[in-house]
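Here is one chain, start to finish.
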Amino acid sequence: MKEVFNKNKIIIIAIIALILIFCLIFVFYNKAGKTSSREEFSISVNYKNGKEIELSNIQKGQVYSNKIIVSNNADDDMYYSVKWVNVSNKFNDQNKLIYKLDTHDADALFVGNSQIPITSCTLSDKVLIRKRSTHTYELTINFDGDTSQEKENMFKGAIEIKQIPKN
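Its structure:
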């Protein structure tokens, strides 16, 4: 009887050891998977007034503004691109529709007073953002033209900020 009890004890200990080994492998595998997935999606973007911009019947001197916050939540430096997308500019005097992408953050993209694009375009292919840091932008758009000359007086578009995948 004692022999059977010892055999059962050894079998139970062996099963427990196998279960522990499988648990350790599972935890290690999942931990490695979470790390790589976190690095893939470590940049977050917050638009205070939404991503899409739609201006119509804008008057001379009227200003649109939006705060954009880009955060790097990773333990590594990352890169992102900045583009104007889905642009539709129906202003007659397009030279007078001016935007500025302002920031005081080191390494961030700064665009001084510039003409709003008439089509989608890239502002920067690669902006560095340091690990665990934030870039804060203030986008302002104003019209400094003669609104009596404007028939449609409409602009649509968005500033798109996308993380560049690590190679």
